[in-house]
Amino acid sequence: MSDFFLTTVLTFDASVRICVPLIFASMAGLFAERSGVVDIGLEGKLLMSAFIAASAASVFGSPWLGLIAGMFASSVLAMIHGFASITYKGNQIVSGVAINILASGLTMILTLAWFKRGGITPTLQNDERFLSITLPGVDIIDHIPIIGVIYRELISGHNILVYLAFVIVPIVWWVVYRTRFGLRLRAVGENPKAVDTAGLSVEGLRYRALLVGGILCGIGGAYISTAYTAQFTKEMTAGAGFIALAALIFGKWHPYKVLAACFLFAFLQALSIRLQGVVFPVIGEIPVQLIDAAPYILTIILLAGFIGKAVPPKASAQPYIKEL
Amino acid sequence: MTRDRRLSWINGLLLPLFNVLTAFIATGIVFLFIGVDPIEATKILIYGALGYDEGLGYTLYYATNFVFTGLAVAVAFHAGLFNIGGEGQAYVGGLGTALVALYMNPALSAWIVIPLAISGGLLFGALWAIIPAYLQAYRGSHIVITTIMFNFIASSLMVYVLVNVLREVGEMSPESGDFIEASWIPFVHDVLANFGYEVTRSPLNMSIFVALFFSAVVWFFLWHTRWGFAIRAAGKSNEAAIYSGINPKKIIVVTMCISGALAGLVGINELMGVQHRLFLNFNYGYGFGGIAVALMGRNHPVGILIAAFLFGILYQGGAELDFELQNVSRDIVVVMQGLVILFCGGLEYLYRPVLIRYLAPVEASE
Fold first, then answer.
1. What is the per-residue pLDDT for B366?
2. Quick one: CA torsion of A15, A16, A22, A28, rounded to 10 degrees?
3. Which residue in chain A has the smallest CA separation from B154?
4. E strands along B7-151, which residues?
5. Domains of chain B, earliest start first
6. Are A118 and B328 an interchain contact pair (Cβ–Cβ within 8 Å)?
7. Residues 114-133 of B with CB under 8 A from A
């Protein structure tokens, strides 16, 4: 029994770790899509930031400088996306695809050019990465059954970016639903003409939304290479940006629901690692690949309208053309 | 020249040309940034891709894949659909090809097995596109999102099938057994040898003629049949299409099936032509490459053939660069693909205002 309990707690603990980049990327996507810009490029921004953060952390010997560099790199890509899709009114999906492919190629080329190794950066020393923090009171609470284990394994012992991810969600909610910027952001994604008529700049708002998204994706990418692991490796984001996109849709563009979707998808991933080779009574072995594909299958079922309905912001994917 | 003529010259020729040039210049800047002389690199690249018969063989072999996925993306574009799922459709199409090529009676003639195996690729590619198409047409789910999801589902499915179903007993690596020999598409060097011409061995096989055949079919279909007209009409204006009696929902499903089927042909070049077995990730990158090819080729089969050839040059030349220079790997091609998609796709109107101002200004009397 206690063994099962510990396993459960550890699986949740793994889910929390996997969840973090999904949260940052999906919140980034939330800003972009709420402003009316579809962001297929989350994956590319995560990957680029993971690479730049690991490189900068290794060269300058500080995870914080790595984080800043990662945020900057991801924001540059976000601005390219904005330049193409806002200023030049190009197809938002095409420029998002371009960003993903560009990030994939550039990270490979630059690892070779900068570190003379194809696809990886030097392994980070402990002082070059974000390490786990032991929260105060672990030793005291440890004696209490159940709560002690949960506190020690699940709540304590994560790095600072994990805690930041869980703090950022209520902040995003507050910004989107309780501030003037948030109100305008939602308005520009639903009815840009009304925003324009009120004398506000549609383009300015969308650029700002993308910049916020760039910064958030940057944190998510830096987490993957400098906190979750200790170096950049080829294609290390492994579709996290797309799972985040799925979570964004699954959570219907609402911060808390998106957080729940991120956690669900992260839990499925953690489960698929645990369930490898486990044989259940009656049903037998569950194919790992089925669990891997579950986030995508669930999102498709949702999109098909079988479990609720996902309605994107009205003006998403449409460039705003000002009438003269 | 009238202003309209000038505008069509700008949109049809100058703009695409400028966009491609910009992508090349941007690649040159990437080369400079990593300390490689772009002119030197271009020389190596072109020699590696075109300078000797083996290189040319590889170039055409890579180009064959790009023709298939480029056509797939282009057909969908004509109906106003963005099929980003070429990667998954190519993958699952390969499964269709493999099932025929593995389990047909080995005694049958190649003239029966090869067309059947090609049909297997077409069918499975189309099947993998039909659910996103149906959901877009009848449930309003955005095709870009669903096709992305289907790419990931395809890769999980294929891992499962290769590991648990098609892998032979006692084999470690996730790949199928050998295809029956009747399904092998002959190599071009073997065919030429039959006629007395000796060329160096390369993976180039007769699939390239299948690619040319389907380019012609797509051209005829889009511009010379009723269905092609309906697809292009629905892509231009949904309302106008409905008004002229076209059912846009049906168009979405039919177009996506054609698109998926074309992407499903990557397997015939890779599997029936070269490897003669099914293995993991044989499709890698060609689905997304097809987007670049379609954008560069302006969604026209002739443009796509040219763009696919160019990407074939880049793929093969990139491998040569990898070999010759220490600072570059063949991933430079991926960077270039990204830049082509950015400048020919996302930023396609970059030079339009400037070109119109200088070459076709609005005259005062108009």
1. 47
2. 160
3. A293
4. none
5. 37-326 (1.10.3470)
6. no
7. 131
Query: Residue B349's pLDDT is what?
Result: 83
Beta strand A279-280 with A284-285 is antiparallel
Nearest CA in chain B to A306: B139
Give A101's contacts in chain B (Cβ within 8 Å): 288, 292, 334, 337-338, 341
pTM: 0.90
Helix (H, G, I), strand (E, B) or coil at B93: helix
- The CA–CA distances, whole Å, from B36 to B41, B316, B324, B335 equal 7, 18, 12, 15
Question: What region, left, alpha or beta, does residue B196 occupy, with left being phi > 0 and alpha being psi -120 to 50 degrees?
Answer: left
Average model confidence (pLDDT) across chain A = 89
Nearest to B334 among A108, A287, A304 (CB): A108
Give pLDDT tens digits for B318-356.
888 888 887 788 888 899 889 988 998 888 888 888 888
Residue B222's pLDDT band (boundaries 50, 70, 90)? very high
Contact B30 A296 (CB under 8 A): no
Identity at A94, one-letter amino acid code: V
- B150 vs A contacts (CB less than 8 Å): 296, 300
> What span, in angstroms and rounded, lies between the C-alpha atoms of A182 and A164?
20
ipTM of the assembly? 0.89
List chain A residues with CB under 8 Å of B351.
none
Number of neighbouring beta carbons within 10 Å of residue A170: 12
